[in-house]
Amino acid sequence: MRIAGIEAMASRLQIRTGQWQDQVHTVDYIDLVVVDVRTEDGLVGTGISHTSGVGAWGILGLLKELAPKLVGRPAVPGPLWDWSWRYLHDCGGGGVTTLALAAVDMAAWDLAARRSHLPLVDLLGRRRDSVPLYASGINLNLSEDALVEQVRGWRARGYRAAKIKVGKPDLAEDVARVAAVRRAVPDMSIMVDANQGWSYAEAMRRVRSLEPFGLVWVEEPMLVDDVLAHERLAAGSPCAIALGENVYTVAQFKEFICRGALDYVQADVARVGGVTPYLRVAELAAAHQLPMAPHFIMEVSAEVVGAVPNLYMVEDTEGGTLRELGAVRQPGGPDGGSYRVGLREGLGVDWDRDFLSARCLEGSRASYG
Questions:
Q1: Does 163 qualify as catalytic in the annotation?
Q2: Superfamily for domain range 3-117+353-368
Q3: Using alpha carbons only, how large is the chain's radius of gyration in Å?
């Protein structure tokens, strides 16, 4: 079935749990770019992309370039993504390009699943009925006591793994905070996230200092633009290295993986360009015996990785799920550190259109076809 029309808009969603802070970001809101793709028979599929404070207008700008060219084309996810990526490639292979492509690609997959009257996870090939979650906090601004209380709360709700932020100016404070969390929840798996804030030398010094705490991984220790530095770090680090939320193309993941520069693959289904490239990254990672641990937008990520063989865990970011942001109105949610998938046709989410429309950025609505 061919595409008859495309609509796009962006909604600004305030973070209800308060301001997020890590060592390089301060975030007050998430911009959600929503794309509806309509086929000739009137069926509509919906996809999204997201930004943390910057980039929504760039995504909408590329959609303005791309969407008119897609009208009349078959709404078949893989070929549609490949043609679209080639069309936009002169703007860059990844980044804003893949963020724009993601919303269209998710909409195409939503359409394909709805046309088959299936949840996306079943269209892809369901491997599990629920996915394990780890609790994640953007919490570098919290005091040590507040941090410990947050992690204890996650454990009380049934989570068996948690991720906290590191990157205090004083290494001793980072060590003290991680030690306090480890003492408070000795039976939890603990990850830490540095948000690309260190140099190579500082990263090596810090991961060695954190070794005694038995961390699952140290996430994004350095700028992900430098693959060779990560290769050096991974070769000498006593801790596993995780990254991927800021890696935007399959080719970039291939280089990290083939150089042995990471241990956990954290591709973001929006930033990498949608379901189509996410599955390609997952297949590449599986071929190298590497686990997938998707970043952000839990409700959508969970539906995709329900069909992925090499899943580790899905990130449940406190304050950042589609439910907590108010973007969806469906009941249910995480249950004891897991999330059930495949309960609805299509992408698996019930968008709250009134809520999103009320928060639409002025001038962001556009229709094509």
A1: no
A2: Enolase-like, N-terminal domain (3.30.390.10)
A3: 20
Residue 288 is a catalytic residue:
no
Q: Read off the pTM.
A: 0.97
State the span(s) of the chain assigned CATH 3.30.390.10: 3-117+353-368
CA 71, CA 37: separation in Å to the nearest integer? 9
pLDDT for 142-162, tens place per residue? 999 999 999 999 999 999 999
- What is the per-residue burial (b if ≥16 Cβ within 10 Å, else e) of 99-133? bbbbbbbbbbbbbbbbbeebbbbbbbebebebbbb
Which pLDDT value is given to residue 359? Answer: 98
100-107 average pLDDT score: 98
Q: Where in the chain is the domain with CATH 3.20.20.120?
A: 122-340
Nearest residue to 224 via CA among 234, 211, 213: 234
Amino acid occupying residue 91:
C
Each residue of 315-354: pLDDT tens digit? 999 999 999 999 999 877 888 899 999 999 999 999 999 9
Catalytic member of 50, 163, 165, 230: 165
Sort strands 338-340 and 130-136 into parallel, antiparallel or unpaired. antiparallel
Strands 3-14 and 29-39: antiparallel
- Among 50, 163, 230, 295, the active-site one is 295
SS3 (DSSP) at 188: coil
The CATH H-level (homologous superfamily) assignment of domain 122-340 is Enolase-like C-terminal domain (3.20.20.120)
